[in-house]
Amino acid sequence: MAAPLILGIGGTTRAGSSSETVLRAALREIEALGATTEILAGPDLVIPLYAPENPERDEGAARLVDLFRRCDGVVVASPGYHGSISGMIKNALDYAEDTARDDRPYFDGRAVGCIACAYGWQATGSTLIALRTIVHALRGWPTPLGVAANTTMRLFDEEGGCIDPGLKSNLSIMAAQMMHFVR
Question: What is the reported pLDDT for 15?
Fold first, then answer.
């Protein structure tokens, strides 16, 4: 049996953002449990605004849709922008509409881990709620645990290792839940 493929999408237009760093940490946890991962982060997600009436896809959007089709699960990490997900992450998720007529449309039957990063706790909660709502609309199965990362605290060392015990534990739990659903 082939290793499941988990797609990670997230970050901001700035490479190495806190939401991208948390996403990479989550994918390392998932890889440690036997999955193969692909990541589209930050600049990879700077793609044209989703326009359903226009079937043309640039290279970045075509890669995203292809990975949506092939993956067994998805992890989405969004910054909390003004109490919700960023426009870049919402735009990326909108491209799942290209799979609407597939045998396995949207995120149907797939586990989806949700991660919200914000400068303070308030926006993490509302961002997680928005992510979970979108995942439900896309027929995905959000993991029972969504991860909130408060970036006012130091969460990672210089090498990208998670040094916050609570965040590390939550990423580990979410990874285990992803793999449980995938298997």
Answer: 86
| First vs last C-alpha separation in the chain | 10
Compute CA distances 113 → 18, 74, 178, whole Å. 17, 6, 7
Residue 133's pLDDT is what? 98
Q: Which residues of the chain have pLDDT under 70?
A: none
Note the pLDDT of residue 1: 78
Reduced 3-state DSSP string for the chain: CCCCEEEEEECCCCCCCHHHHHHHHHHHHHHHCCCEEEEEEHHHHCCCCCCCCCCCCCHHHHHHHHHHHHCCEEEEEEECECCECCHHHHHHHHHHHHHCCCCCCCCCCCEEEEEEEECCCHHHHHHHHHHHHHHHHCCCEECCCCEEEECCCCCECCCCCECCHHHHHHHHHHHHHHHHHHC
In this predicted structure, what is the pLDDT of residue 31?
A: 98
At residue 159, the pLDDT reads 87
Distance of CA 150 to the CA centre of its chain: 17
Residues 143 and 114 sit within 8 Å (Cβ to Cβ)? yes
